[in-house]
Structure prediction request, 346 residues.
Amino acid sequence: MDTAIDRALARFPREILTRTPTPFDHLPHAGARIGLDLYLKRDDLTDLALGGDKPRKLEYEVAKARMSGATVLVTCGSAQSNHARLTTAAARRVGLGAAVVLSRDDHLVFQGNLLTVYLMGADVRFADTDDHWDLERHAHAVCDELRANGETPYFIPVSGSTPLSCLGYVRAGLELADQIATARLQPAAVYTPFGTGGIFAGVLSALRARRIGCPVVGISVNRTVDRCRESLDTWWAAIGELLDLDPARSQGPIEIHDRFVGRGYGDATEDCLDAILLMAETEGVLLDPVYSGKVFAGLCAHQREGRWQGNQPVVMLHSGGTPALFAYHEEIRAHLVKRGVEVPDI
Ligand SMILES: Cc1ncc(COP(=O)(O)O)c(C=O)c1O
Prediction:
């Protein structure tokens, strides 16, 4: 399709980091288990270092970094940050250095994402905070240090979300809209994770531009609904400005839920672990305990509450994050035992 939004998007330089489109899968077994016609957009299968949402976001930021003569990409996140893994991988793919500032948090184990950033040779620093904005302060200090050593750092914020990188999820949303049209579906809802809201705002912008008017449902992984809405409005306006969209265009029906967060970011709640187990044993698809497991937990809870009709197609975006599973092996093991699975004592 070649509409105004496609043409506006094509104006922005992009460093291709993954092949697209990612698959759009029907999940008959998981759907039958929960009583829905379920579809999964497989952004866990983007093909950069174990996949996820970041390659699409980084395509725009890395293009800008290279044009500005950067020598090192610098970012920050949790100890099990997917973003740190994929920023490091993107930097390596285009021949740049990578420095990452990570928090000393509950999942600081040499497993999953943390293992991969070391493997790819990132300059890893730790900060004694789990406040993401405080981490940015530390990352800026690393940028100063790198500059003093003659490098040209390029800073990418937490989660990789910037107005420019949201365009990656506008592209993803357009791709999804085309897959929905090809499958001749009229979805009852599209579910996405909501962290900083970059994914949500990008997908929402694209679906509305393609005149898909169903509710878009964001499952918060850390923030309250009010904070999520503030971020959404910021990204929504920024995307509109970049792509010359009407600032007064309607967001249409949206929902953001914060009741699946649990005790905080990265808390593998019981519902989340059940959702991961259900998806794994019915479809052989691995979700993660921080993002996609919570989205599926939210979707399953809504279904139990009678929110959707059995024959209505519901679409979920799998944004990746699966390497973090390995850092949660203790929680997962305990949950399997609780659900009656015999796990050897090893
Ligand atoms: C796997 C995964 N899904 C979703 C998100 C959240 O995306 P956003 O910040 O755009 O809401 C992240 C952010 O780090 C992530 O790593």
Observations:
- The mean pLDDT is 96.
- Strands lie at 24-26, 37-42, 72-77, 97-103, 123-127, 153-155, 189-194, 216-220, 254-257, 313-318.
- The chain has two domains: 4-51+162-338, 54-160.
- The chain is about 45% helix and 15% strand.
